[in-house]
Amino acid sequence: MKTLLKITALSAILLGLVACNKEENVPFVILAQGDRYGGPDTFGQIIVIKTQEEWEREFLYQCYNELEIDFSRYQMIIIIDELRPDSRVSISGISSIVKSSNRLIVAMTEWRVVGDHCSFPGAEVQNYYIVKIPTTNKKIELRISIRTHRC
Predict the structure, then answer these.
(1) Torsion angles phi and psi, residue 14, rounded to 5
(2) Which of 46, 90, 122, 141 has the fewest C-beta atoms lying within 10 Å of its C-beta?
(3) 40 phi and psi, to 5 degrees?
């Protein structure tokens, strides 16, 4: 009987730990995406925008100033890839945004082209995404899975 009670108590504790680390999907909308050529030096970063004033100070505002966000309910994140020397590596979409107990995890895919006949040297580029998510104070973490394909 004591063994059964111990197993039941241990199971309840383990279930509680699993529930504490539960992750749930966060709804998001990709408002814009593109490639930057030149501009301010930014080397792979996430910019969190919580107010209209912050948005108007951002360098991409001049291209997307028609975007309207209700900053009382939503915030924007701008994800900027690192500067790439050619187009053989690119970030390709956001597959999910997941909320855990202490952070948001943005999952993306990085595509790397394998082969020497498909590069475009001299075309330095940075991919970027402007994303709308519900307002949060959680830290935002980027997780990139790497995939390759031949040209």
Answers:
(1) -60, -40
(2) 122
(3) -60, 150
